[in-house]
User: What shape does this take?
Amino acid sequence: MPQLNRDLLTGLLFIAIGGLGLWLGASLEAGTVGEMQAGYYPRLVCLLMVALGSLVALLGLLRQGELPERWHWWPLLMVAVAPLAFALLFDSAGFALTLAAVALLASLAGRMLNPWRMLVLAVVLVAMNIGLFVFVLGLPLRLWPRI
Amino acid sequence: MQDLLGNLAMGFGVALSLQNIGLCFIGCALGTAIGVLPGIGPLPTVALLLPFTFSLDPTGALIMLAGVFYGAQYGGSTTAILARLPGETSSVVTCLDGYAMALKGQAGTALALAAIGSLLAGMVTTLLIAAAGPPLADIALLFHSADYVSVMVLGLISAVVMAHGSVLKALLMILLGLLLGSVGTDVATGEYRFTLGLDMLADGIGFVPISMGLFGLAEIMINLENRGGRGVIAKAVGSLWPPLAVLRQALPAMLRGTAIGAGFGIMPGGGPTIASFSAYSLEKKMAAQPARFGHGAVEGVAAPEAANNAATQSCFIPMLCLGIPPNALMALMVGAMMVHGIQPGPSIITKQPELFWGMIASMAVGNIILVILNLPLIGIWVRLLQVPYAYLFPAIIVFCAVGTYTVDNSTGDVVLMAVFGVLGYVFRKLDCEPAPLMLGLVLGPLLEENFRRAMVLADGDVTIFVTRPISLGFLLAAAALLAAVLLPSIRRGRQEAFRE
Assistant: This one.
């Protein structure tokens, strides 16, 4: 039974990405070498990726490789969720409240601060960013929620 | 010679305007500050600060970004010496002897050597750029699109060879970068490619969300896993004036480091990291008693510091003169220039001489600013080092989100950044270096454009790449590099160079 390892997983990931590219770009016309259309170059890149990905996967199957290091889901999740919250909230909640939410979610990722300190940090970060982006750089960002 | 002096004078005229000195200073200070903070290297630093330069004029913006780049590079060395924390990979070797010196109470001497070495290397390399730039650009003007394709292939292959870790994985990351670079409207036919029906992708994927995600967010995710791990900060800095005997010992090492650094910086795929490693191993080989290294050898600080600063500056040469970034950071600079509507390449010297010479002169100014920032003001950076990561990383995340948003006022870009943050984490778990991806992303559109043009001109005849002598030369060099790295004996040597 071949073991899962980093190389095998890498190969499979890139075969999947290359395959996805080929599938998404299937409707693009390739044309000929002398007269390339929009699809020629992306298809070439995807095919190379699938070929090379297969090679890496094959080598991974043959060799005894290491498994990926243990995943830590919490920081991964929270560090990704914080900017997503920005994207979700910004248009309706305005700059100040959005930043507060992002700062709180972000500091949750570390699980190092008590709630009181998190709150203080959030207030400081909101003030700093408003000062920098709105007052110093003068960007036209709406500060408060739309009523 | 007359020309050179005249051009430099013009450059200093630009660089020494009050506004540009100010921008250079701000760039260096911000770069140093962020470089000192653990876990953020020059690449995310430049990416983070990019949006701030959008409102400036192009010359000012590039002067500031260049300042951020070498400031961040330098900040990494300070932490390497004082806390055994390499701010980024190019200062890893400085940790060995720099921190050893700091433990012996000679932190001040080590910092001074790093500063003097960097200043010397920076000045010499600045002159080199000024002298070598224009002739190189003249040669580049002879290039046809086929030659450009080949030189880019050489650049990408060298990036693979120089990256540590698996060659095949680096190649895969480059291909992914090339693919991401093809997203958006096809220039030749106007067709949409891989836009998934989203308007925001019609202009392509911006490199700011990708680099912030891959380098900024992913870095935090990894750092939060291995919490703690902070070394003891050397308390007493000691005298900043190195004894004369030490200086005499260090000077030849600095000069050798400068030569190595300048060479590796110009090479496609090279850059500060490989330069500092090579300089360190050369010093160790040349020393009468190699056993001193690792226990506070003066040359072990002076040479790699000179090398990494020389490489930091000489890697601007291929970027400015050929329009081809030799490493991921220069790829980011190319992106920054394009945001300002400047296409780097051979014509930049004749078309925008103020920008070209102003930027070069600003590097000389920046090197002096760095010394001022880093010797008398060292206390500030020591204090900054003590900011706990628990407060630092939420600030970085907030800043990444706002920074990415303000580039294009697009919340979609912020989502994209989060996606690439997760991808960056996955790549790291799979031992895939993200830097080659950035290079592919920026070079991709250029590569495709020149490839298509070359093929149209040659009527679909692919042998054009081997019948044109310039192109053939580049391709042979690329093949030789690839062959060399795949041969087992050399591979072993390369692994040794990256160890320690």
The longest helix of chain B spans residues 107-140. Chain B touches chain A through 66 residues (CB under 8 Å). Chain B has 23 helices and two strands.
